[in-house]
Amino acid sequence: MDDLDRKILQLLQQNSRITNLKLAQAVHLAPSAVLKRVRSLERTGVIAGYTARLNHRRLGLDLTVLIDIETSEKPGVMSIGGKLAAFPEVCAVYDVSGHSDYIIKVVVRDTEALNDLISRLGRIPGVLRTRTSLVMRTIKNELSPEPML
Predict the structure, then answer these.
(1) Is there a single domain that holds both residue 22 and residue 63?
(2) Which of 25, 82, 117, 148 sits at a 20 to 30 Å CA gap from 92?
(3) Mean pLDDT for all residues in the chain
(4) What is the pTM of this model?
C-alpha cells in the first residue's frame, strides 16, 4: 500500500459514496487506475465493506452508554462475548484486559430501556458485575482511524 492508496482510503472514509471520477480527480489519476486500486483494496480486505452512518438521535436512540462487565469466565473462553453481541442494542463488544473482562457500547432510547438492558445483561450466567458510563458528549466517533499518510 502506497501513499495514493492511503489517500484513496481517506477520501472513501470521508464519503463512501464518492464517484470514481471524483475520486480520480482528487488523487490526480485516471478513473481506470483508481478503480483498479479500489478493487485491489477490496480484494485484499483492506476495505471490508461500505456502510451508512446513522444518526441515532433521529432514530429516537438518545443514550449512548459504555458498560464494563466483569465475569467469572476463564481467560480466553469468551462465550459470554457472543451472548453480549447478540443483544440488538449492542454496537460493539470488546474483550479487554484490566478490571473488566468486556466493555460494550450500547445505544438505547432512554433510561428505562437502559435499565431493562442492564437487567437482561445481569441474567447472563457468569456475569458478576456491570459498571455503566453514560456518554455525555461524543467528541469523535469514526469506524476506523484515518490511514496514516
Answers:
(1) no
(2) 148
(3) 93
(4) 0.82
